[in-house]
Amino acid sequence: MKDNNTTSDYSKLELGEFSNLTENVFQPSPDFKLEGKKFVKDELGLTSSEISFNTMLPHTAIPLLHKHKENEEIYIAVKGKGQLLLNDNYVDLKEGTIVRVATDTERAIRNNSDAPFSFIVIQAKENSFEGSTVSDGYLIEKKPNWN
User: Fold this and answer.
1) What whole-number distance in Å separates Cα of residue 53 and Cα of residue 40?
2) Number of H-type helices and E-type strands within the chain
3) What CATH number is associated with residue 104?
4) Across residues 35-39, what is the average pLDDT?
């Protein structure tokens, strides 16, 4: 990470290149370790979601299935190719693919290619969004000054 900026108005985190994400290690328990996963909720002070940035090396896989109690997940393929296993169904992922996974769906992910696979996962509470971004936003009189 290169720099962190946080004010009351916004927060900023520089993760660096996706290829360097493999230096991050997520270890939720002594017997399970996952390389290449970086959660950013705490560092950004997120209040409505969790986001992870991920890079999997070629021919690696998450060795377990999991579900969520409250959070749906959105998988966004950024670079390379991979595959989700969703309730015994294989779903191919490539750059630009976006998949929403409901809470009660069994899931795992793998990189079944010869190159690194980078993706983003967003977790948010299922069925909690009650508005639209268009109706939530509003214009103000002030114009941007890009000088």
Assistant:
1) 8
2) 2, 13
3) 2.60.120.10
4) 89
